[in-house]
């Protein structure tokens, strides 16, 4: 029962609970635990009644060919993600440079591009690219779509990161006689990177998740394979949509959590290097 | 950063291949179109050598040593792919193999590409596939973007309902009912005039799942497709049996490639005349219980 | 470009546009309510509620939206939950966006000066009162900017519903390309529609920002 007894001290929103409050929290805790457990039990029981856990429905997953499909799908997902990540970071850096340019036409063009692709649904962008240019090679429609959209978002992240560096830093550098490119590359960007990294990696998580849209344009990624397994059942027990979601979902979640863990690790390292005061958590 | 991601990827791959090491090969007996022991055998086709078809698509295919054929993968007895073995089977698949043989390609030289209904036109027009065989109804609107060889089969739109459903007896009785069909199919337009509530997914299998779970009252499309599902889920689903349209199935190919169209028409004609068509029908669609219809007359243009 | 005014194309486009707006508005409402509730869970003194909030956010933020749509569309009916496909889409999109809203609000709560909550508590306010009367109203201001990106992303994400039997703009696009119109012309009109929606939301948030900034 340690979960209920642990005193809640970490927050400024409430006092350290006294004996009465602790009893009340424990009651709340037990009630909500019962509620959640009840709901979970209902879901599992109904699904079981429905035959969703019958061996027949899970049958596909024991075949080599099906397991190979999932591995291939995973690799295709990672391949598209790798390409899109590299390209979108490059495009983001270019667009951000453009947006921070002193030349008005360059600045306006880049801002327009960024705003346009940030507003377009990725799905529509990918499908349009597929129909118009890449019907032979759906992977590039997916990668290019992801690049255009995520590159625009990365550009915004970089731009606001650079703008968030204290103004005096840039002014001091100019006063020392540095040129704009020097100010950017040796003063502003190095300082901005530290604060930008978490959001940039957060956006990479979004990129990873969005590779799943490839299924709509016949790119053989993980979700495409999952859908294939679900819609071509081996026996007459029904379509294994729920088993497929239960298998594919955790794979995506694990991949995203790995990326997020990476983000957190980098953030922690950055904080250590900067000698920053640790802020009080609420 | 680089190393830890590579490590993560490697770990995932290892975890998956490790589980993969204890899997089964092959596919379970009695899957959709593989059949009982006394079932009619599939015909085999003699692969022609020395084929001269002056078509850019075929020239390209010869060069790559592979013919890329688009097909459906989730329609029992028509276009089916067994996920456990990777084998394709069904009437459309047989038709595609016949044509491939006459164009000089062995079944091993065929690369199948699964495409759902709404993806067919762009894939053909842009050359993602060489041609498409998969319950593709010939109509004038589609002839604007692709061309057709055939028809090689005539189907009619019908309704698939649950076995105990007595209220849906034909298209007139679907008004206000929830009817499911596939995006990008001709079936939508045909059923719309009867005022049902329409649900759309990209595949018919999603519709059948929705019918089995009671979300929709009926699935509508060509009877050939529906019969396959009805016999796969015998005892749960039935076909109403009142076709209300005529759908001419054709082989879809590049709009301007008349040479290829003629070659495919010749191939169809030859196999219809030598009895392969009938044998293929008996070994696939015939298993769903309906006798072979008359061979349709080819329309050449 | 002129194809939009042929046949019944304009009606189809208009219906798709309205459906996109309806879907986005309903999902936004669900996301806002659920997201605030989850944020309250995540800062609450009851450990189980905190764990529930954290689990929800972890699950929904890290699952592709398309997979969530699959889970809702094909997973709920076997549980005896039968709704129209619009409601399914609202559940998937709303539940997904709620996890983002929750994180934005939570980080907003963290920016409210410590003294505010301490003062509220020393006046004898309970956790609920501290949160709803003192902390959240102040957090609203700081969360507006990140919140606007979440809600601009929402109509964009709603396009996925088109593949799950909701007749919105994406499915109108599909129908148009089946009718054989040029993909560039179709893309032009659909792009205009989405730009209009996102510009409207951006303007709305900018208006809110100026309104609330005065109060500070």
What fraction of the residues of chain C are assigned to beta strands by DSSP? Answer: under 5%
Number of helical stretches of at least 4 residues of chain C: 8
Q: What proportion of the residues of chain B form beta strands (DSSP E)?
A: 15-25%
Radius of gyration of chain B: 21 Å
Order of helices and strands of chain B: HHEEEEHEHEHEEEHEHEHEEHH
The major beta sheet of chain B can be summarized as:
5 strands, mixed
Our count of helices of chain B gives: 10
Q: How would you sum up the global shape of chain C? A: globular
The counted number of beta strands of chain C is 0
Q: What does the main sheet of chain C amount to?
A: none
3D shape of chain B? globular
Order of helix and strand elements from N to C terminus of chain C: HHHHHHHH
How far apart the termini of chain B lie comes to: 61 Å
Order of adjacent strands in the largest pleated sheet of chain B: 5-1-6-13-7
Distance between the termini of chain C: 48 Å
Radius of gyration over C-alpha positions of chain C, nearest whole angstrom: 20 Å
Q: What fraction, in percent, of the residue positions of chain B are helical? A: 25-40%
Given as residue ranges, the uncertain stretches of chain B (5+ residues, pLDDT < 50) are 1-7, 30-36
Give the beta-strand count of chain B.
13
Q: Can you give the mean pLDDT of chain C?
A: 87
Give the tags.
heterotrimer, A: 282 residues, mainly alpha, disordered N terminus, C: 216 residues
The gist of it:
The complex is a heterotrimer of chains A (282), B (301) and C (216). With 282 residues, chain A is mainly α. Chain A has eleven helices and no strands.
Question: How would you describe what is shown here?
Answer:
The complex is a heterotrimer of chains A (282), B (301) and C (216). Chain A is an all-alpha fold and 282 residues long. Chain A contains eleven helices and no strands. In chain A, helix 6 packs across helix 7 (138-164). Chain A is flat, with a radius of gyration of 25 Å. Mean pLDDT of chain A is 84; it is low at 1-10 and 275-282. Chain B has 301 residues and is an alpha/beta fold. In chain B, 33% of the residues lie in helices and 20% in strands. Chain B is built from ten helices and 13 strands. A five-stranded mixed beta sheet of chain B has the order 5-1-6-13-7. Chain C is mostly helical. Chain C has helices at 9-43, 47-61, 65-75, 85-111, 114-122, 127-157, 169-178, 183-215. Chain C is globular and about 70 Å long. The termini of chain C are far apart. At the A-C interface, helix 2, helix 5, helix 6, helix 9 and helix 10 of A face helix 2, helix 3, helix 5, helix 6 and helix 7 of C.
């Amino acid at each position: 029962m340690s979960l209920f007894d642990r005193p809640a001290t970490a927050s400024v929103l409430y006092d350290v609970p006294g004996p009465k409050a602790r009893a009340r929290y424990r009651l709340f805790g037990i009630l909500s635990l019962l509620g959640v457990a009840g709901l979970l039990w209902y879901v599992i029981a109904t699904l079981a009644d429905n035959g969703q856990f019958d061996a027949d429905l899970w049958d596909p997953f024991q075949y080599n060919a099906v397991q190979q499909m999932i591995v291939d799908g995973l690799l295709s997902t990672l391949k598209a993600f790798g390409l899109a990540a590299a390209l979108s970071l490059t495009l983001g850096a270019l667009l951000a440079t453009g947006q921070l340019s002193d030349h008005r036409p360059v600045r306006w063009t880049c801002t327009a591009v960024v705003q346009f692709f940030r507003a377009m649904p990725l799905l529509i962008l990918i499908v349009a690219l597929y129909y118009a240019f890449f019907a032979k090679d759906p992977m590039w429609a997916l990668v290019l779509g992801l690049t255009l959209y995520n590159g625009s978002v990365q550009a915004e992240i970089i731009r606001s990161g650079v703008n968030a560096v204290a103004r005096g830093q840039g002014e001091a550098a100019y006063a020392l006689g540095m040129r704009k490119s020097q100010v950017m590359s040796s003063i502003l960007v190095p300082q901005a990177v530290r604060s930008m990294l978490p959001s940039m990696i957060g956006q990479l998580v979004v990129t990873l998740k969005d590779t799943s849209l490839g299924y709509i344009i016949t790119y053989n990624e993980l979700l495409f394979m999952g859908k294939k397994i679900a819609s071509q059942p081996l026996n007459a027990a029904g379509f294994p949509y729920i088993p497929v979601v239960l298998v594919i979902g955790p794979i995506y979640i694990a991949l995203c959590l790995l990326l997020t863990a990476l983000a957190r690790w980098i953030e922690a390292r950055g904080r250590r290097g900067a000698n920053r005061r640790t802020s009080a958590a609420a | 950063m680089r190393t830890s991601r590579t490590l993560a990827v490697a770990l995932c791959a290892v975890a998956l291949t490790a589980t993969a090491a204890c899997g089964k090969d092959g596919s379970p007996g009695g899957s959709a179109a593989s059949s009982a022991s006394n079932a009619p055998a599939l015909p085999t086709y003699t692969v022609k050598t020395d084929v001269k078809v002056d078509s850019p698509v075929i020239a390209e295919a010869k060069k790559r040593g592979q013919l890329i054929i688009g097909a459906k993968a989730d329609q029992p007895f028509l276009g089916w792919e067994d996920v456990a073995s990777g084998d394709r089977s069904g009437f459309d698949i047989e038709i595609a193999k016949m044509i491939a043989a006459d164009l000089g390609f062995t079944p091993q030289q065929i690369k199948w590409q699964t495409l759902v209904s709404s993806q067919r036109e762009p894939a053909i027009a842009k050359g993602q596939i060489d041609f498409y065989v998969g319950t593709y109804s010939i109509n004038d609107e589609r002839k604007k973007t692709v061309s057709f060889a055939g028809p090689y089969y005539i189907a009619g739109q019908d309704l698939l309902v649950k076995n105990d459903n007595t209220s849906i007896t034909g298209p007139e009785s679907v008004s206000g009912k929830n009817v499911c069909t596939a995006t990008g199919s001709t079936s939508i337009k045909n059923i719309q005039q009867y005022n049902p509530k329409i649900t759309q997914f990209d595949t018919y299998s999603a519709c059948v799942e929705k019918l089995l779970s009671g979300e929709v009252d009926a699935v509508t499309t060509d009877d050939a497709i529906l019969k396959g599902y009805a016999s796969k889920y015998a005892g749960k689903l039935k076909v109403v049996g009142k076709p209300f349209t005529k759908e001419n199935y054709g082989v879809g190919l590049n709009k301007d490639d008349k040479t290829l169209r003629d070659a495919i028409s010749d191939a169809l004609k030859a196999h219809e005349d030598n009895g392969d068509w009938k044998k293929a029908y008996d070994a696939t669609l015939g298993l769903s219980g309906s006798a072979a219809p008359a061979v349709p007359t080819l329309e050449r243009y | 470009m002129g194809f939009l005014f042929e046949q019944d194309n304009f009606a189809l486009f208009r219906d798709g546009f309205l459906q996109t707006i309806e879907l986005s508005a309903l999902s936004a409402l669900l996301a806002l309510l659920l997201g605030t509730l989850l944020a309250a869970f995540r800062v609450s003194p009851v450990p189980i509620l905190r764990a529930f909030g954290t689990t929800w956010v972890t699950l929904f933020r890290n699952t592709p939206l398309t997979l969530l749509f699959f889970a809702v569309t094909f997973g709920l009916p076997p549980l005896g939950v039968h709704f129209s496909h619009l409601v399914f889409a609202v559940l998937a999109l709303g539940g997904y966006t709620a996890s983002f809203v929750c994180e934005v609000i939570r980080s907003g709560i963290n920016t409210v000066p410590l003294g505010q909550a301490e003062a509220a508590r020393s006046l004898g306010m309970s956790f609920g009162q501290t949160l709803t009367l003192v902390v959240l109203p102040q957090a609203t201001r700081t969360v507006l900017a990140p919140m606007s990106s979440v809600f601009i992303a929402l109509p964009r994400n709603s396009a996925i519903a088109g593949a799950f039997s909701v007749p919105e703009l994406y499915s109108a696009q599909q129908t148009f390309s089946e009718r054989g119109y040029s993909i560039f012309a179709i893309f032009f009109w659909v792009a205009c529609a989405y730009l209009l929606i996102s510009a409207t939301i951006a303007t709305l948030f900018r208006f809110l920002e100026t309104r609330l900034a005065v109060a500070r």
